[in-house]
Amino acid sequence: MVVDSSTPAVTAALVRVEDPELPGAGDPQVTVLAERVTVDGRAHGELLAPQIQAVLAEGGAAPGDLAAVVAGTGPGPFTGLRAGMVTAAALGHALDIPVYGVCSLDGIGHGQPGRLLVATDARRKEVYWAVYSGGVRVDGPAVDKPAAVSVEVDAAAGDGADRYAEVFGLPLLPPRYPSARALAALAADRVRAKAPGETLTPRYLRRPDAVAPGERKPALP
Amino acid sequence: MKTEPLVLGIETSCDETGVGVVRGHTLLADEVASSVEEHARFGGVVPEVASRAHFEAMVPTVQRALDTAGITLADVDAIAVTAGPGLAGALLVGVAAAKAYALAAGKPIYGVNHLAAHVAVDTLEHGPLPEPAIALLVSGGHSSLLQVDDLAGRVEPLGATIDDAAGEAFDKVARLLGLPFPGGPPIDRAARDGQIVIPFPRGLSAARDLVEHRFDFSFSGLKTAVARWVEARQRAGEPVPVNDVAASFQEAVCDVLTNKAVDACLDRGVRTLVIGGGVAANSRIRALAQERCDKHGITLRVPRPKLCTDNGAMVAALGAHLVAAGAAPGALGLPTDSAMPITVVTA
Ligand SMILES: Nc1ncnc2c1ncn2[C@@H]1O[C@H](COP(=O)(O)OP(=O)(O)OP(=O)(O)O)[C@@H](O)[C@H]1O
Ligand SMILES: [Mg+2]
After folding, report:
1. Three-class SS of residue B133?
2. Total domains present in chain B
3. Of A17, A100, B106, B166, which sits most exposed with the smallest number of CB within 10 A?
């Protein structure tokens, strides 16, 4: 099961990861059996579990058939990101199967040719970004104002790249949001090797907004 | 005979990650991971700090609760989770986790009201709640008088605070006395060594206020009165008798709360008063409520202090009650509601 909630695209996908060593393994070795993506930045917590249930049903699988959970670990807006990650962690815990984390931006940059800027919307007029060379992350992830991102690339992808296209001035490539297939492919070696599960760490990249209270105002005039 | 429902409860509405396991009215596990120390220097709960802590604590706390209860997820009849009221981002962590557990284990899910859970937790201590009962709910974010006709669905608000919650007043007064956050426990302790000597005001208790606000509370005037009294001392260069201020402030809060709660019982002809929420852990409110209930032949029910503050057992207790009452479970898409009204017991 692949889960990502780092962007407004709430994503759940049932994916088959085949072992190339096994006879008859098909190509590609990562196959998306069922996928649900809903673009709604405000309802991650409501959409995700029903989507997981829907892809299981469509793929003809029961929760107990799952071998692993792959979770996009952001960066992404805190609340939405956590909804997906805690869902993944609890699913893995309940089913006693490993959970693997993948940087969500890699779900956009993976496998892309040339030098690519991946940028997603970080709100507050900022983007989460990373740079890929031949599909491999070489810089980032980081969070910055679009104008402060100065990188040598041929193109850009992601909803942040689109939103600030005028600032970046780069040709825009798909996908707009992390692809479940790419996230699964990036964890496929761990899935095949039955690697130990991971304690997921959200890539918040920002500190919580917390201000210590100032001096109390006097109650007497 | 059908065995009583076994329910796992998850609570993340504020700064405690609570997971409890309950069978009927029997408490099997009550595990709490608190981020309160991370908030102390801010003088109040920082929502994002609380949410991050819930994320980290969720799976380990669920596992501890299962271990303590000696069960597995497969054994439970249902999963209950606080759906509101509370901090939106914090609620979402618990609700998302609960849905994943419910989905994975194939169990029904109940999204429940945190305030109703503060009342339901008493059933773990004193058994089924006689209905109707009057409930005084006093916590960090709420101060309400309720008539509970049916804990599984019919709760009528009689009154509530029109400004600060009682726990909030404890926290603010503690701060101005230089006591740590949360302020309830240190004020409770300081008051034991103090005298009730300062006549602080009793909010909404004058005859003219009782016309419209008989069962409402107000604590912001009290807080200001304490601040003025303390500042006047400081300006005069005199020491502040912290213990006496604590005792006098605490008395003013507990006096009004218990007075109005007993008045509600008498007005409605209800013989049972239950007190819940963090402030119900206060030693003075417990003693004063007992005294006044005894005088009027009202049965007082207050759970032990550890069950008064936020925990997962209270959510499991309400969940078990809902299952036993045959209430319909929620959907996997159930929303959180940071302002969930008390009239909604389950989402
Ligand atoms: N012994 C005590 N005396 C007085 N107040 C107390 C005591 N112990 C805890 N409190 C107060 O209880 C409050 C915390 O209670 P609780 O955990 O129920 O509140 P909350 O969950 O923050 O708010 P709510 O339940 O309204 O969402 C704090 O304000 C704290 O100061
Ligand atoms: Mg509470």
Report:
1. strand
2. 2
3. B106
Q: Is the CB of B309 under 6 A from ligand 1?
A: yes
CB contact under 8 A, B96 and A89: no
B61 falls within a domain: yes
- Which pair of tokens denotes residue A28? 């590609």
Phi/psi of residue A69, nearest 5 degrees: -120, 135
- Specify whether A133 is located in the same domain as A83: no
Which pairing describes strands B143-150 and B133-138: parallel, antiparallel, or unpaired? Answer: antiparallel
Using a 6 Å cutoff on CB, does residue B147 contact ligand 1? Answer: no
Same domain, A97 and A149: no
Position in ligand 1 atom list of the atom nearest CA B45: 22
| CATH number of the CATH domain containing B282 | 3.30.420.40
Q: Decide if B218 contacts B203 (C-beta within 8 A).
A: yes
Whether B48 and A78 lie within 8 Å, measured CB to CB: yes
Q: Are residues B85 and B193 in the same domain?
A: no
Contacts of B319 (CB under 8 A, 6+ apart): B5, B7, B8, B9, B22, B78, B79, B80, B110, B112
Contact A208 B62 (CB under 8 A): no
Question: Residue B86 belongs to what domain range?
Answer: 6-121+311-324
**Sign of the alpha-carbon dihedral angle for A142, A148, A152, A153:** positive
Q: Say yes or no: B315 and B301 in one domain.
A: no
Averaged pLDDT score across all residues of chain B: 96
- CATH number of the domain within which A53 lies: 3.30.420.40
Say if the Cβ atoms of B59 and A89 lie within 8 Å.
Answer: yes
Q: What is the pLDDT, as a whole number, of residue B1?
A: 47
Indicate if ligand 1 lies below 6 Å from the C-beta of B171.
yes
Residue B138 C-alpha to ligand 1 middle, in angstroms?
7
Average pLDDT over residues B73-77: 98
Pairs of CB atoms within 8 A across A/B? 124
Same domain, yes or no, for B165 and B104?
no
Same domain for A56 and A140?
A: no
Q: Within a domain: residue A36?
A: yes
ipTM > 0.90 for the complex: yes
- Provide the domain count of chain A: 2
Q: Is residue B1 part of a domain?
A: no
In a domain, B188, yes or no: yes
Rounded Cα distance between A190 and A131, Å, is 24
Query: Which candidate from A82, A209, A212 shows the least CB-CB separation from B55?
Result: A82
**Residue B188 annotated as binding?**
yes
Ligand 1 binding pocket includes B311 (Cβ within 6 Å): no
Interface test with B, best of A14, A44, A85, A93 (most B CBs within 10 A): A93
- Looking at chain B, list the stretches that DSSP marks H as alpha helix, in order from N- to C-terminal side: 36-40, 47-69, 88-105, 114-120, 123-126, 166-176, 184-192, 207-213, 220-235, 242-268, 283-295, 305-308, 312-324
Give yes or no for residue B141 CB within 6 A of ligand 1: yes
Residue A37 domain boundaries: 2-104+178-193
- Rounded to two decimals, the pTM is 0.95
- pLDDT (tens digit per residue) in B87-133: 999 999 999 999 999 999 999 999 999 999 999 999 999 999 999 99
Residue A207 placed within a domain: no
Say if the Cβ atoms of B235 and A220 lie within 8 Å: yes
